Amino acid sequence: MASFVIKPTHLRCVVRTGRLISEYRTRKTLFSERSYSTEGDSRIPKIYTKTGDKGFSSTFTGERRPKEDHIFKALGNTDELSSAIGLAREFCLDKGHTFTYQLDKIQCVLQDVGSNIATPQSSARESHIKRTKFAVQPIADLESWIDTFTEELPPLTNFILPSGGKSSAALHVARTVCRRAERSVAPIVRSGEADPDVAKFLNRLSDYLFTLARYAALKENKEEKIYRRPE
Ligand SMILES: Nc1ncnc2c1ncn2[C@@H]1O[C@H](COP(=O)(O)OP(=O)(O)OP(=O)(O)O)[C@@H](O)[C@H]1O
């Protein structure tokens, strides 16, 4: 009998999504919600269900909403943020920075951010709320990391422009995507549909990314450009 192996391509469904919350949910999606190829004796789930083709998609609570709904915009921005951090992390790894484990953790927390956003409280059952509750520890972690880096950095006396080498510049791009994610999450939190700690995390994350961009430039001996008023 063929055994079913979850391959990275299948897990991409998990990474892409705000609706795939836990191992249980992942398996449920992989086994029951996706289309299957029955060629040969191995059943390979397809990544596409075609259910989004008409411009609607699902929240984790099962609501169908148009793709331009603020929930999907916020989910998309969070996904973009994780991708931007992923790229910055690659540049940082190339330079041997030791803080990349923090970026790994943050990418995981962003999955939890997505889960919380994908679960509008108005249509959530108790079990949804329990499974997608956002933890506060990641906010404290960011604050402690910011404080540690700041101790080593020269004080800010000018406006810094995104620069300072590839790691630093990529972290600045991630910072600006983070601020977009924060802007799109703000109205959802304000309407009571998502956890206020999600907005707090994103707000702290942009400060962390700013500080880390400066720290990366410092460690790489790269000059940060500063704002100068044109003559
Ligand atoms: N364009 C989008 N931007 C952000 N989030 C999305 C977008 N489309 C869907 N989502 C969210 O991500 C989840 C996974 O995306 P997926 O592409 O599987 O959805 P779909 O388009 O509804 O389905 P399919 O691609 O199989 O037709 C969806 O359940 C929804 O919560």
UniProtKB/TrEMBL annotation:
Sample GO molecular function, one term: ATP binding
Residues spanning the membrane: none
UniProtKB keywords: ATP-binding, Nucleotide-binding, Transferase
Pfam families in UniProt: Cob_adeno_trans (PF01923)
Residue span, Cobalamin adenosyltransferase-like domain: 47-216
Keyword presence, Transferase: yes
Cited function: Converts cob(I)alamin to adenosylcobalamin (adenosylcob(III)alamin), a coenzyme for methylmalonyl-CoA mutase, therefore participates in the final step of the vitamin B12 conversion. Generates adenosylcobalamin (AdoCbl) and directly delivers the cofactor to MUT in a transfer that is stimulated by ATP-binding to MMAB and gated by MMAA.
Name of the molecule in the record: Corrinoid adenosyltransferase MMAB
The organism of origin for this protein: Scomber scombrus
Lineage: Eukaryota, Metazoa, Chordata, Craniata, Vertebrata
